[in-house]
């Protein structure tokens, strides 16, 4: 047999046959997906309906730009669009409560939520029943009464934050609050949940390297969504080889290893606190919980939970705080009103010490600024796909009254940002207007508010987050005089890359301020 032949066929004949088969397969798939799929009646661009490579291009190659395509699809095709061969996206505030509530037991979409390779965390747990079991312990730790008990922990970390502001004032040195806010949130969440706290605000770079690591890892993970073998494979590559890729790749690997180490410590100590922590440490509580089976206490599952607590607890809070700070400093009237409220509500003696959230939670203007910041920041910008495994769903457009049948098993997603920027709920949605949350407009504004999502999969850290937002903004504007660094602009807080968390343009230096 000649080397260029196989079973009597020449190599060129074989190549032609392979090519013809491939073209045939792709054509049949295209025709099926566009004309015969159970989703073929849902409007949307044909290319997006034909192949997931469309999303891949904007999501992975263009780093989190698919959201822009989805927004454009809605402008062209209306409130429901087929954004991939398998998924529909809806932009209609009237449908939000139907999709995200406590009564319907919807699953999360495994394809979408696998991107961080944290599949054992409550965040990425797909099945609603397994989620209920796992989330119980963590929800208890963040209930209003539990957050009240950890006030001393908050005061300690916000004390460090206020000292940094004082030092910055004394040394006349600018402060990058984008980094400081993220690090502050990491210090709080790691103190509350891990055997060892990270104390990033006590490091020379105030945690800037950690913020960079979270961003690099999250952006890289977009590729993992499309090729879920990438992260597990990366973790098998020897450290020296990864080192050839540079510092960033090493930082990612080292931080992941550190999280694994913390999980091992929880197990090795049998869930007992070995540090000076006198309050229940969340991961210890998870490990000791009688409600969880042994498989829910493996190193990998604890490690997944730790990674998510750190990421979810810091990026969201950090981005929201940076957004509020930028907008308050950019609106002199708002800035003045906020300072007036804070400074007239406390004595000089009160203002010498860290203001606790218990003193701040009832101040109307402060909380209006926070609500408005949560809305504009929409710190979870990723779409949130849910699946009803059992029953089909009917979506009726609140605008055209047209109904669409969505088969059981279809991922259906909505984006919090779409609701928060809807003109019928929030007129001039791009403007920072704390007044929306006061007086008569408040009812409508609150009806649309979804920063922490709604229903059974809503944010478990909401109470902690609110306390942190109140303390960070209340202390900053109540106790310090701050000005914007020249050049600071809206792009420094605006969503550019949707990595589930909103990331700004890479060139941004963050929200840099002077304390005067
Ligand atoms: C401004 C701050 C925050 C915002 C805007 C926010 C927003 C959200 C949203 C929208 C979700 C739902 C995600 C989904 O449906 O897939 C969520 C889930 C979650 N958040 Fe937050 N979050 C914030 C702060 C925190 C903090 C401080 C923690 C710390 C514990 C935290 C931990 C979590 C966890 C663990 C989940 C997954 C919950 C589950 O699936 O049961 N978040 N958050």
From TrEMBL:
Segments passing through the bilayer: 6-32
Electron transport is among the record's keywords: no
GO MF terms, alphabetically ordered: heme binding; iron ion binding; monooxygenase activity; oxidoreductase activity, acting on paired donors, with incorporation or reduction of molecular oxygen
Listed Pfam families: p450
Key words, A-Z: Heme, Iron, Membrane, Metal-binding, Monooxygenase, Oxidoreductase, Transmembrane, Transmembrane helix
Keyword NADP attached: no
Cofactor: heme
Amino-acid positions noted as binding heme in the UniProt annotation, renumbered to this chain: 459
Record family assignment: Belongs to the cytochrome P450 family.
Protein's name in the database: Cytochrome P450
Lineage: Eukaryota, Fungi, Dikarya, Ascomycota, Pezizomycotina
């Amino acid at each position: 047999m000649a080397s260029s032949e196989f079973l009597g066929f020449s190599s060129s004949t074989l190549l032609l046959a392979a090519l013809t088969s491939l073209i045939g397969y792709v054509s049949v798939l295209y025709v099926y997906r566009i004309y015969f799929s159970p989703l073929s009646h849902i409007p949307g661009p044909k290319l997006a309906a034909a192949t997931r490579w469309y999303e891949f291009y904007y999501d992975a190659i263009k780093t989190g730009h698919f959201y822009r395509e989805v927004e454009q699809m809605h402008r062209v095709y209306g409130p429901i669009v087929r954004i991939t061969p398998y998924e529909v996206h809806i932009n209609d505030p009237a449908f939000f409560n139907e999709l995200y509530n406590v009564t319907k037991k919807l699953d999360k979409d495994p394809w979408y939520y696998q991107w961080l390779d944290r599949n054992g965390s409550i965040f990425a747990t797909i099945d609603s029943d397994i989620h209920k079991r796992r989330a119980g312990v963590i929800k208890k730790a963040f209930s209003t009464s539990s957050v009240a008990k950890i006030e001393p922990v908050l005061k300690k970390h916000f004390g460090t934050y206020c000292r940094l502001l004082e030092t910055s004032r004394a040394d006349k040195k600018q402060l990058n609050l984008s980094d400081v806010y993220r690090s502050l949130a990491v210090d709080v969440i790691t103190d509350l949940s891990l055997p060892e706290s990270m104390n990033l605000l006590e490091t020379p770079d105030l945690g800037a390297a950690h913020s960079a690591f979270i961003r690099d890892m999250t952006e890289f993970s977009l590729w993992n969504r499309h090729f879920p073998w990438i992260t597990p494979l990366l973790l098998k590559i020897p450290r020296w080889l990864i080192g050839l890729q540079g510092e960033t790749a090493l930082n990612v690997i080292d931080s992941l290893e550190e999280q694994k180490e913390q999980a091992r410590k929880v197990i090795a100590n049998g869930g007992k606190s070995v540090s000076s922590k006198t309050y229940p440490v969340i991961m210890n509580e998870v490990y000791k919980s009688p409600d969880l089976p042994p498989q829910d206490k493996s190193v990998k599952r604890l490690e997944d939970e730790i990674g998510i607590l750190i990421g979810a607890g810091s990026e969201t809070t950090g981005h929201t705080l940076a957004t509020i700070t930028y907008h308050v400093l950019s609106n002199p009237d708002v800035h003045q009103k906020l300072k007036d409220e804070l400074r007239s509500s406390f004595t000089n003696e009160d203002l010498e010490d860290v203001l606790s959230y218990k003193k701040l939670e009832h101040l109307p203007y402060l909380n209006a600024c926070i609500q408005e910041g949560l809305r504009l920041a929409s710190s979870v910008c990723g779409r949130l796909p849910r699946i009803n495994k059992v029953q089909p769903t009917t979506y009726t457009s609140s605008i055209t009254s047209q109904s669409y049948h969505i088969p059981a098993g279809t991922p259906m997603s909505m984006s919090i940002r779409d609701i928060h920027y809807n003109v019928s709920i929030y007129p001039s949605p791009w403007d920072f207007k704390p007044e929306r949350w006061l007086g008569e407009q408040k009812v409508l504004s609150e009806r649309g508010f979804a920063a922490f999502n709604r229903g059974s999969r809503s944010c478990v850290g909401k109470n902690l987050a609110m306390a942190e937002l109140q303390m960070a903004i209340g202390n900053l504007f109540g106790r310090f005089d701050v000005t914007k660094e020249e050049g600071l602009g809206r792009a420094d807080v605006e969503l550019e890359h949707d990595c589930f968390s909103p990331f700004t343009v890479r060139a941004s230096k963050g929200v840099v301020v002077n304390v005067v």
